[in-house]
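Data availability (excerpt). The following record was deposited with the supplementary files.
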Amino acid sequence: MQIIRIVMTWLCCILASIICRIHPTFLLILLFSLKGLDVRAQLFDQDSLKLISRQFAFTEGPAVDKDGNIYFTDQPNNKIWKYNTEGRLSLFKDSAGRANGLYFNHRGQLLACADEKNEIWSISQDGKVTVLLSDVDGKKLNGPNDLWIDKKGGIYFTDPYYQRDYWTRKKPEIEGQKVYYLPPGKGKKPIVVADDVAKPNGIVGSPDGKYLYVADRVRNKTYRYTIESNGKLSGQKAVIDQGSDGMTLDNQGNIYLTGKGVSIYSPIGILIGHIEIKEPWTSNVCFGGKDRTNLFITASTAIYCLPMWTKGVE
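Predicted structure:
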């Protein structure tokens, strides 16, 4: 890998000296392209992909705790599983509210998009459930799908509508499919922070708390918003022409999107890598392990792990 980096750097220097006098804009594009090739070579080795287990109906929502353990859902079977840093798989919670997206808050509580009754849950380590949100002005949410928690403890979550066979209702009670923010503190009400999306799904925020990324499955776009001091969002910008079921970021600012395998984009939206997953659908991703260098991938009936040459930020 060191040889590749040296060669690419050498090429960049030579091309820069030749082209910079001719066309600066072309030079910028060329440098980003070469950098993309360099990053692609450094990110992962496809042959290192490891199947952890295939015993589920449909896996979703991987989340990492402070120790690096991974929790994920088997939504059709209504369970949450744990895969610890020692490589042991165990059942964390049965009757899990048909949980979908998961995320740990700063107090070590597992937050879940509990799709069965369209609620947001907080789950303690002994499995005790606290319902944080059950409705908006007396109306059921469409179906909380994915969530991210800011440094204050506020919760951003997407609320698309996917008809479930275990629901009695056949249509949404709330008009539109939106992104909400639930401020920290008991009794707080959620606010709509993005209604300029068609079907929001995957969501993640930058570690500095400046930006929120939201994937739109209908428009096949991933948007970046600026997070304001009051939790509201501004400045929608389409950074990637691809939607996603779930997503994560690494410490280089690269964006990992799911669907057919895992597509990796640079912070400016250039495709720099693709992890092939031989499953019908790849739902979500999360970095885990003691040093956050393993990428855990939920895909159809399975969960995978891939060692990375970069780190997660969650």
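Summary of structural features: Helices lie at 2-19, 24-43.
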